[in-house]
Amino acid sequence: MVDKEWFKEWFDSHYYHLLYQSRDEKEAHQFIQRLIGRFALKKGLKIIDIACGKGRHSKFISTLGFDVTGIDLSAESITYAQKDENKNLHFARHDMREVFRPNYFDVALNLFTSFGYFESEEENKKAIQAMADNLVRQGHLVIDFLNVKKVIKTLPVKEQKTIENITFNIEKFLANGYITKEIAFDDEGRAFHFTEYVKNIQLHQFQEYLNLSGLEIIHTFGDYHLNSFDETTSDRLILICKKN
Ligand SMILES: C[S@@+](CC[C@H](N)C(=O)[O-])C[C@H]1O[C@@H](n2cnc3c(N)ncnc32)[C@H](O)[C@@H]1O
């Protein structure tokens, strides 16, 4: 069973940001630029970055001439992101299971595996419905998720990472339909333990959620270079969907 609402505490903690601090920003920027080019997105469009974290994608997209709003549940991340707000860049603390602003955005983004955290199917459906409801008709949703089939083949995994004198002991395995990551470490004489869960959601399951919300998949990419998705070899499952 998933620890209900585990994501509230972990993503809001200093240790989460420490562990993932070496994300590839260049790759993230190039991915955004490829998407904008491929779909010829016009400057001035309204974009919502759902589960934006500290706003790394939102900030970059706003520099390209779009009007961007980032939302996230983590108060810590949103407070940090808000330091860079301007007239085309806004951040708000908000739960993705609820609609933020109905029928308003041209594009909704859900990037870097920011889905699959919930305990129930109802919550998954609710979150996708809220993503759809944020969009204008004919608006587009981009979901950037893991290719779970490929990841599961590599499990179980054990690794150790030392960052700023903290040694994180990490175990990743499949349990009860979730890719489960146990993260244990000591800091200042205290032992910490967090668990991340990402649900084993495959393309056909996304298709069902999306159809229920009036969204149609129009492209399926398998990596940040926008190569086609192949369930055996692709690293990512990137869905481009249109609201009908
Ligand atoms: C893997 S991080 C990715 C963050 C960001 N998209 C990025 O690429 O840096 C997942 C994010 O989802 C957020 N999150 C988790 N549950 C959420 C919810 N119910 N509503 C909104 N955001 C949520 C977390 O706070 C965290 O910032």
UniProtKB/TrEMBL annotation:
This protein's UniProt keywords:
Methyltransferase, Transferase
Asked whether the UniProt record includes Methyltransferase among its keywords, one would answer yes
User: Which PANTHER family does this entry report, sorted A to Z?
Assistant: TRANS-ACONITATE 2-METHYLTRANSFERASE (PTHR43861:SF1), TRANS-ACONITATE 2-METHYLTRANSFERASE-RELATED (PTHR43861)
Q: Which residues form the Methyltransferase domain?
A: 47-139
* InterPro entries per record: Methyltransf_25, SAM-dependent_MTases_sf
For this entry, the protein name equals Methyltransferase domain-containing protein
Task: Show which residues constitute the signal peptide.
Answer: none
Q: Name one Pfam family in it.
A: Methyltransf_25
Q: What residue ranges are annotated as transmembrane?
A: none
What molecular function does GO assign, one term?
Answer: methyltransferase activity
A Gene Ontology biological process annotation?
A: methylation
Q: Which domain of life is it from?
A: Bacteria
What is the organism of origin for this protein?
A: Acidiluteibacter ferrifornacis
